[in-house]
Amino acid sequence: MGGKGAGAIDYGKEHVDGGKGRDPITEREVNAGKELARCRALLGVRMYGLVSAVCGEGYALTEIFAGKRERLTAADCLRMSLDDLAELWRLATRR
After folding, report:
1. Which residue has the higher pLDDT, 92 or 83?
2. How far is CA 90 from CA 31, 45, 85, 87, in A?
3. pLDDT digits (tens, 9 = 90+) for 22-55
4. Structural contact between residues 40 and 81, judged by C-beta atoms closer than 8 angstroms
5. Using CA of residue 94, residue 59, residue 64, residue 50, what is the dihedral sign?
6. Cα–Cα distance between 6 and 8 in angstroms, integer?
7. Which residues fall within 8 angstroms of residue 80, CB to CB, at 6 or more apart?
């Protein structure tokens, strides 16, 4: 066929992909996942989604809701949800 041609393949060699192996999940990451599950159970799917969108992803209420009434309702729900989380984490102040 010309040229050097294909070299012999050594099937005894260990195959590598050139990438690094992923570190196993840490205990800290496991605990964070469990804490998020507790928060979701407390708030429910809808309020958890609102809190994670605003506090976790940085969305403004004006980016999520179009109407003024929806934004005001969402702001009230966000306040209540944050109060619930503060009680869960024992950060709530006495009123």
Report:
1. 83
2. 17, 22, 8, 5
3. 678 899 999 999 999 999 999 999 999 999 999 9
4. no
5. negative
6. 7
7. 47
How far, in whole angstroms, is CA 62 from its chain's centroid? Answer: 22
DSSP type of residue 52: I
pLDDT the model gives residue 79? 97
Query: For 3, phi and psi rounded to 5 degrees?
Result: 65, -165
Q: Which of 56, 47, 55, 42 is nearest to 77 (CA)?
A: 47
Backbone angles phi, psi at 27, to 5 degrees: -65, -35
Check residue 14 and report its DSSP letter: P
pLDDT tens string 63-88: 999 999 999 999 999 999 999 999 99
Instruction: Please state the φ and ψ torsions of residue 73, each to the nearest 5 degrees.
Output: -65, -45
User: CB-side exposure of 62: number of CA atoms within 13 Å?
Assistant: 0
d(CA 67, CA 23): 46
